[in-house]
Design a protein that fits this description.
The structure holds two protein chains of two kinds. Chain A is an alpha/beta fold. Chain A is built from ten helices and ten strands. In chain A, the strands form two sheets. Chain A has a six-stranded mixed sheet with strand order 1-2-10-7-8-9, with helices on both faces. In chain A, strand 4, helix 4 (105-113) and strand 5 (117-121) form a beta-alpha-beta unit. Chain B has one helix at 27-37; strands at 2-5, 19-22, 55-59, 62-63, 79-84. The longest helix of chain B has 11 residues, at 27-37. By secondary structure, chain B is of the alpha+beta class. Classes of the chains: A alpha/beta, B alpha+beta. The A-B interface holds A 49, 76-77, 79-80, 126-128, 131, 148-149, 179-182, 184, 204, 206-207, 209-214, 216-225, 230, 233-240, 272, 313 and B 7-10, 44-45, 52-56, 58, 61-63, 65-66, 81-89.
């Protein structure tokens, strides 16, 4: 099957990716502006990355880039790896995942539960170090690297499912806010929403992980994912770890949403955007994963300094 | 005077400090004053070629690329955060 005739949305459904609930954050939204959030922790392995993993595998199979039985390798701070580990089981491919050594214990347990081989990269190099190691393994061993940071299917997954799901449920969207990791959610959903509402503002929530990264020798060692186009954004907000954790507690304890720290960051930024919009506006965000994946970190009790050494997304 | 928060990778260039304070009416003027005081920072911040894609600069919590870039005005009590580009996911 060629890429042009591949029905990506149908492939995602066939592999169990669901249309997630879009909930309104009535206890958090400011007066006069609605904030809605996609509940991605309800996906099969508990994160938004089930969409991305399924799209990348479907595209690789359709293009012939992933021959039957070939070993997959991917760099991930956890969620993409877990989603791919499940897909690898369903499609009969062995799978090696490279993760920074400070990811939570739950993530390692889930990866090994699905039979993935786990390779650790140095904690102080963060996701950047994991990417470099995965690239080297793919080159040296001839394994198939799907490379979520470069793979257009990461963006397309959101352009054909997450985005259209939002469009079908809401009459208007004035701003879309999501965490910036690979850029896939922002680029893909942004594309789908702009097709319908050209004036929609697309705003990135910048996670605070960079503050603790020590492994870079120069700023030029930093990594900008090739699929991420900064010109496709209308703004980018830096979210402090303390603010992300405070909002996480509000999401759990006032909205009853069992979500992880990146959801706290996304909603903190969504609220900042909402506070600047006129009455009647609608803001949409994405809750990328669930709380249970972080229980070993006692994330609901930590202050920002204690949580600073963890890879929380 | 603007407070500039530096990432770990840049601190050796300023004697180990996490925060330095310099004068300037715009982000560009603040950066000029910064590299005059600490010249080894200049190549890290892109020299005269504008802000490199792998450097992210936030004025308080907003990326200056989506404000007025290096022309963005800076208040006396502003906090400027420089961060490396780091992937997640």
């Amino acid at each position: 099957m060629s890429t042009s005739t591949l029905d990506l949305a149908a492939s995602l459904r066939a592999w169990g990716v669901i249309r997630t609930p879009l909930v309104r954050l009535r206890e958090i939204e400011p007066s006069g502006v609605a904030i809605y959030a996609k509940c991605e922790w309800q996906q099969p392995t508990g994160s938004v990355k089930d969409r991305v993993a399924a799209a990348m595998v479907a595209r690789a199979v359709a293009d012939g880039a992933l021959p039957p039985g070939a070993r997959l390798v991917e760099a991930s701070s956890g969620n993409t790896g877990i989603a791919l580990a499940r897909l690898a089981v369903m499609t009969g491919h062995p799978f090696t995942v490279v993760v920074p050594e400070n990811v939570t214990a739950e993530r390692i347990q889930l990866l090994t539960a699905f039979g993935a081989e786990v390779v650790f990269s140095p904690a102080e190099e963060g996701s950047n170090g994991a990417v470099r190691l995965a690239e080297r393994l793919a080159a040296d061993e001839g394994w198939v690297l799907l490379h979520q940071y470069e793979n257009p299917a990461n963006v397309d997954a959101h352009a054909v499912t997450t985005g259209p799901e939002i469009v079908e449920e809401l009459e208007r969207v004035d701003a879309f806010v999501a965490c910036l990791g690979t850029g896939g959610t922002l680029m893909g959903v942004g594309r789908a929403l702009r097709d319908v509402w050209p004036e929609v503002r697309v705003v990135a929530a910048e996670p605070p992980v960079g503050e603790t990264i020590a492994g870079l020798r120069t700023l030029a060692d930093g990594y900008v994912p090739p699929i991420f186009d900064p010109t496709a954004l209308d703004g980018r907000l830096l979210v402090r770890l303390g603010d992300a954790l405070a909002m996480l507690r509000r999401l759990v304890r006032t909205e009853g949403l069992p979500v992880g720290p990146s959801s706290g960051a996304a909603v903190h930024a969504a609220l900042r955007v909402a506070e600047r919009l006129p009455a009647g506006s609608v803001v949409v965000t994405v809750l990328p994963d669930g709380l249970e994946r972080y229980l070993s970190t006692r994330v609901l009790e930590l202050d920002a300094e204690e949580a600073g050494g963890l890879t929380l997304w | 005077m603007a407070r500039i928060k530096l990432p770990t990778v840049l601190r050796p260039h300023v004697g180990g400090s996490a925060v330095v304070e310099v004068e300037g009416r715009t982000v560009g003027e603040v950066f000029t004053a910064l590299v005059e005081r600490y010249p080894s920072l200049e190549p890290q911040l892109g020299g005269d070629g504008g802000l490199p894609v792998f450097v992210n600069v936030f004025l308080d919590d907003e990326d200056i690329r989506y404000l007025d870039g290096l022309d963005t005005p800076v208040d006396d009590d502003a906090e400027i955060t420089i961060l490396p580009a780091v992937a997640g996911g």
